[in-house]
């Protein structure tokens, strides 16, 4: 134990740099903004949010989805190495898993501000489980997933590749189960036709893999910003950029058919939600961010360079992450804009209800991002996240 603590202190000293301190400072500022927003929420309750009876799920839910999707995606990509035996991908293991832990914890922190009594939820999750509720399974499976990735990281730090592989496999299975179940939380809501159906569980897994590739590219670009990237790491990043491009192509294919199936025959609920995206209140968020920045631009950039230019791939990954954040927002909000029951007092001329995030919600989102970055920066300073040699 003392050896581990001493190693952590030594690594923290060697890892400290003005650039790292600047990153930590910016992350800390975001956390302070989030705490200020949290105080306002604790004083004013849900009145501080832009949500309503008509749109009960807002940007906090979509941000939670964004974080847990990111965590699952990082787990999926990192499992290619020490779980499925692709040696080339072993270099990303510890760094990806640390970020997977940071993103899932940030997601839990954000969703806790949306739940009225999060501690009561934790208690009743154990003493009064509802096995028929997808949300109960979501909480339970993500709890198991967090446990397994923590164990996986612990075994990695002890250079115990055998047990890290076992824990990684358990995390992979739990992550797939939890994430597809998250899609089912939406997909099983038959009253909301935009979400209803088997599409979302599959779509969530695919988009998680896309997100995982993008984050890995960004993590290693930052890691080797001031020094030469080793050849084996560079080769792995180029391989991931090609995988990223392929998955983006599949995601675009899914998106096109989602659009056509929603518009075809004007199915109530689906049609109005899709029109809100393509020609309604969410059109900028959809066309500008989700479609262009999130999918088309990164796909075209990597395809044009044949996946051989790492700088372009990193830029594409950054663009995609911005777009993916709005992709989650569009998914959550668009499904609620068609009112369940017509009310002339809340429905606008287009027959839709409206939603805009409040400053409190935006502050909590920024705080969640800052918390995620701060946890990763701290782990990067305390632990050696570069790849170990197998013995």
Automatic annotation (TrEMBL):
<dbReference type="InterPro" id="IPR052049">
    <property type="entry name" value="Electron_transfer_protein"/>
</dbReference>
<keyword id="KW-1133">Transmembrane helix</keyword>
<dbReference type="InterPro" id="IPR005614">
    <property type="entry name" value="NrfD-like"/>
</dbReference>
<feature type="transmembrane region" description="Helical">
    <location>
        <begin position="243"/>
        <end position="264"/>
    </location>
</feature>
<feature type="transmembrane region" description="Helical">
    <location>
        <begin position="21"/>
        <end position="43"/>
    </location>
</feature>
<keyword id="KW-0812">Transmembrane</keyword>
<comment type="similarity">
    <text>Belongs to the NrfD family.</text>
</comment>
<dbReference type="GO" id="GO:0005886">
    <property type="term" value="C:plasma membrane"/>
</dbReference>
<feature type="transmembrane region" description="Helical">
    <location>
        <begin position="284"/>
        <end position="303"/>
    </location>
</feature>
<feature type="transmembrane region" description="Helical">
    <location>
        <begin position="96"/>
        <end position="119"/>
    </location>
</feature>
<feature type="transmembrane region" description="Helical">
    <location>
        <begin position="201"/>
        <end position="222"/>
    </location>
</feature>
<dbReference type="Pfam" id="PF03916">
    <property type="entry name" value="NrfD"/>
</dbReference>
<feature type="transmembrane region" description="Helical">
    <location>
        <begin position="310"/>
        <end position="331"/>
    </location>
</feature>
<feature type="transmembrane region" description="Helical">
    <location>
        <begin position="131"/>
        <end position="151"/>
    </location>
</feature>
<protein>
    <submittedName>
        <fullName>Polysulfide reductase NrfD</fullName>
    </submittedName>
</protein>
<feature type="transmembrane region" description="Helical">
    <location>
        <begin position="163"/>
        <end position="189"/>
    </location>
</feature>
<feature type="transmembrane region" description="Helical">
    <location>
        <begin position="55"/>
        <end position="84"/>
    </location>
</feature>
<feature type="transmembrane region" description="Helical">
    <location>
        <begin position="362"/>
        <end position="383"/>
    </location>
</feature>
<keyword id="KW-0472">Membrane</keyword>
<keyword id="KW-1003">Cell membrane</keyword>
């Amino acid at each position: 134990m003392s050896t581990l603590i001493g190693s952590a202190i030594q690594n923290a000293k060697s890892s400290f740099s003005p650039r790292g301190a600047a990153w930590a400072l910016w992350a800390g500022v975001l956390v302070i903004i989030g705490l200020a927003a949290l105080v306002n929420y604790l004083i004013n309750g849900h009145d501080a949010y832009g949500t309503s009876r008509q749109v009960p799920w807002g940007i906090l839910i979509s941000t939670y989805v964004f974080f847990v999707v990111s965590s699952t995606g990082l787990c999926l990509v990192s499992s290619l190495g020490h779980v499925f035996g692709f040696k080339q991908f072993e270099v990303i293991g510890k760094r990806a898993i640390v970020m997977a832990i940071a993103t899932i914890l940030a997601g839990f922190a954000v969703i806790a501000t949306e739940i009225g009594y999060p501690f009561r939820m934790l208690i009743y999750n154990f003493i009064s489980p509802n096995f028929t509720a997808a949300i109960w399974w979501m909480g339970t499976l993500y709890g198991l997933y967090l446990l397994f990735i923590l164990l996986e990281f612990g075994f990695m730090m002890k250079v115990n590749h055998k047990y890290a592989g076992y824990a990684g496999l358990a995390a992979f299975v739990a992550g797939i189960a939890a994430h597809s179940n998250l899609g089912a939380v939406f997909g099983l809501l038959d009253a909301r036709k935009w979400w209803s159906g088997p599409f979302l569980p599959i779509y969530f897994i695919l988009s998680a893999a896309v997100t995982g590739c993008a984050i890995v590219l960004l993590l290693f670009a930052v890691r080797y910003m001031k020094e030469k990237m080793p050849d084996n790491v560079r080769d792995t990043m180029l391989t991931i950029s090609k995988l990223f491009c392929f998955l983006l192509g599949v995601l675009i294919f899914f998106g096109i058919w989602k659009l056509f199936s929603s518009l075809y025959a004007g199915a109530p609920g689906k049609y109005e939600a899709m029109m809100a995206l393509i020609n309604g209140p969410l059109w900028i968020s959809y066309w500008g961010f989700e479609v262009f920045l999130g999918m088309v631009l990164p796909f075209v950039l990597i395809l044009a360079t044949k996946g051989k230019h790492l700088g372009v791939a990193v830029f594409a990954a950054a663009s995609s992450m911005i777009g993916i954040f709005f992709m989650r927002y569009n998914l959550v909000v668009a499904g609620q804009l068609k009112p369940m029951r017509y009310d002339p007092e809340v429905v606008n001329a287009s027959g839709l209800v409206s939603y805009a995030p409040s400053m409190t919600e935006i502050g909590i989102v920024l705080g969640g991002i800052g918390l995620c970055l701060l946890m990763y920066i701290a782990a990067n300073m305390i632990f050696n996240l570069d790849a170990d040699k197998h013995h």
